[in-house]
Design brief:
mainly alpha
């Protein structure tokens, strides 16, 4: 990236790239929300998954994030971009990213519990706005995206160095974290509003569902072979 590339240009490029898949994902989630409230089998299915999550705890979260964010993208790449022919790179990508996504899922799970501790489990408008604000403007850019992107950059260095910080923390945020955060803002605010509107036991299953749809939509519409690093 050119040193003269401004954050505004980075933001504009990220919005242009992600607005269409973001809108499509939001439409899908709107349909799902309607199905949850008005379609009994959908509600029953989610409640069953939530019960399994409550029983399995963090193991469920770690496995679900591995499947949706590490394994699913590689399956999509093989199916749609590699003519059904897996490579060693697919295996390396899945295996090396799985621990990152497992840790990210557990971190999100802990954060949702922390949100309940801070603001309670209600779904009134002030509570929802508070949770969304903390989620999208504090946790997402300065904790979740920063740590996940740092981990993926470290993986690109074969877990041997941290040269991606050589130009300083500010440059790392502008060049790496900021574009991903802009992409996230095209997708996640309506999604987290839905998540925080639901009972606590269903929040992680719905977050995993959003992540899965995001991987599907992003892969199909952007035809990118790079890692999906938004949580």
């Amino acid at each position: 990236m050119s040193h003269r590339t401004s954050p505004l240009r980075i933001a504009a490029a990220a919005i242009k790239k992600n607005i269409l898949p973001g809108l499509l994902l939001q439409a899908v989630m709107g349909v799902f929300l309607a199905a949850y409230f008005w379609h009994q089998p959908t509600r029953f299915c989610l409640e069953q998954i939530s019960a399994i999550k409550e029983e399995a705890g963090f193991a469920f979260t770690a496995l679900a994030y591995c499947l949706s964010s590490a394994i699913l993208p590689e399956i999509l790449k093989i199916a749609f971009f590699q003519k059904g022919k897996p490579t060693k790179q697919n295996l390396w990508s899945a295996v090396s990213s799985a621990p990152i996504w497992a840790a990210a899922g557990i971190m999100v799970d802990l954060f949702y519990r922390f949100q309940i501790f801070l603001f309670g489990s209600g779904n009134d408008l002030p509570t929802l706005l508070a949770k969304i604000a903390v989620d999208q403007f504090l946790f997402s850019p300065f904790v979740a995206n920063f740590l996940v992107i740092s981990a993926f950059c470290w993986r690109e260095e074969n877990f041997r160095s941290a040269s991606f910080f050589s130009r300083g923390l500010r440059a790392f945020f502008v060049e790496k974290v900021f574009p991903v955060q802009i992409a996230g803002w095209c997708v996640w605010p309506p999604a987290v509003a839905i998540i925080y509107s639901m009972p606590p036991a269903t929040q992680i299953p719905i977050a995993v569902l959003v992540q899965t749809f995001w991987v599907l939509v992003f892969t199909a519409l952007n035809r990118s072979k790079s890692e999906t690093v938004e949580i």
